[in-house]
Amino acid sequence: MSTMIPPLSLKDSYDRVIRDLRISITDRCNFRCFYCMPKEAMEWQPKAEILSYEEILALAEIFVSLGTTKLRVTGGEPMVRRDVESLIARLAKIEGIEDLAMTTNAHFLHNRARGLREAGLQRITISLDSLTPERFALLTGRNELSQVLDGIDAVIEAGLQPVKVNCVVIRGINDDQAVRFAEFAREKGVHVRFIEFMPLDNGKIWRREMVVPGEELRRRIHDIYPLERMKSENLSETARRWRFVDGAPGEIGFINPVTQPFCGHCSRIRLTADGMIRTCLFSTVEHNIKRLLRGGATRDELADFIVAAVEKKEDRHHINDPEFVQPLRTMSCIGG
To answer: In this structure, how many other beta carbons lie within 10 angstroms of the beta carbon of residue 299?
Structure first.
C-alpha cells in the first residue's frame, strides 16, 4: 500500500495548482451541433464502459482530498443521463467542495432547474450558439430554440446565479449575432461568454479563417453598447470579463484560446465518461484510471495515479504551431 501523504494542493510540473475538475458523465447528447457531433449515428461507448455514479463519486472524493475545490458536471449532455439530480446531491455532500456547477444545452431545464438547485447545484452554464430559430436549427440539428430559452428562464427563476451562456462563434455562421447576444445579456441579466472556435470538431472542418477573435467581437459590441473591463484576481479564469458602461445588468466575456491562450494559469483537469484522465482539452494522451479503479486499487494507489497524471499536464496547447495534431476525441467525448 502506498504511503503517500496528500499534498496541500495538487500541482503539475509547471507549479500550476489544479483546483477545477470537469467530470463528463456521458458521451451522448440530444443535439447534433455540427462542430461537435455529426448528424449521422454516433458510435456510443457501451454502457459497461461508462463510469457508474458510485465510481464517479469515489474519484471525485479523492480529487477533493488532493485539493480540488471546484467540480463541473458535463457531457455530452449530462441531463440525458438518468437521475442526474441524485449524482448532484451526492457530489454536493463532499466536504471541501466550494463550487459545484453543470454545463448543459438547457433542453431539459424547464421542469428540472429547481430540482437541481435543491439537490445542491450552485451554478449552470448553458451552451447556446444562436438566438434565431433558423440558425439554431442549422447549428444544432434540432428546431428547439424555444425550449432552450424556456430552460434559461427556469434557471433564472430557480436562482442558480450567475447564469452563464456560452456561445461558440464561427465566422460566416453566427458571428453576426454578437450584438444580439449582448442585448440578451442586458435583457436577462445573464453572463454571455463568446468562445473562439477550436479544433475539436467531429468533421475536422476547423480552419483558422473560421475563428473570430474575441477582440473583434468586443469592438463590435462596444460600438453599440460601450463596455468597460472588469478586473479579476483569479488568474486561472478563462474569460476576459466586461460590463456595460451604462450600468445595465448582465456581463460579457471573451474566451480566446486561439488568439490569446491562457494555458500558463490553467487550473483544470478532466475525467471522461469512460474513466480517462485528460490533462488538457488537446491532449493526445489519456490516463486510464478506470482500469485501476475496477482492478481493485486502493484509495492511496488511485491518489498516486492522479498525482502522477497531473504532473504530466502539458505546458500549453499547440493550436498555433505548424505541427499541431488535432485530438482523436471530440468535445462530446472529452467533456467541456
So the answer is: 13
Phi-psi region of 11 (alpha: psi -120 to 50; beta: other; left: phi over 0): beta
CA distance 265 to 331: 21
Distances (CA, A) of 228 to 206, 221, 253: 31, 11, 11
The domains found in the chain, sorted by start residue, are: 20-334 (3.20.20.70)
DSSP 244: E
Give the Cα-Cα-Cα angle 143, 147, 148 (nearest 5 degrees).
95
Query: b or e along 66-89 (b: 16 or more beta carbons within 10 Å of the residue's beta carbon)?
Result: bbbbbbbbbbbbbbbbeebbebbb
- Nearest CA to 332 out of 15, 2, 43, 120 is that of 43
Pairwise CA distance, residues 219 & 227, whole Å: 9
- Whether the pLDDT of residue 143 is over 70: the answer is yes
Tell me the C-alpha to C-alpha distance, in Å, between residue 205 and each of 29, 77, 177. 20, 22, 21
Which helix (H) or strand (E) segment holds residue 55: the answer is helix 53-65
> Which distant-in-sequence residues (6+ apart) come within 8 Å of 21 by Cβ?
60, 63, 68, 70, 71, 72, 268, 269, 270, 271
What pLDDT is attached to residue 31?
86
206 Rama class: left (phi>0) / alpha (psi -120 to 50) / beta: beta
Alpha-carbon gap, residue 40 to 100, rounded angstroms: 33
Rg (CA), the chain: 19
Give the pLDDT confidence score for residue 35 in this predicted structure. 74
Q: How far is CA 296 from the centre of its chain?
A: 30
Instruction: For residue 241, give the nearest of 127, 178, 335, 164 by alpha carbon.
Output: 164
Cα(136)–Cα(145) distance, rounded to whole angstroms? 6
Residue 40's pLDDT band, with cuts at 50, 70 and 90, is low
C-alpha 191/C-alpha 251 separation (Å) is: 5
Asked if 277 contacts 22 with a C-beta cutoff of 8 angstroms, the reply is: no
pTM of the model: 0.90
Q: Transcribe 170-220 into DSSP letters.
A: BTTTTGGGHHHHHHHHHHHT-EEEEEE--S--TT----GGGB--HHHHHHH
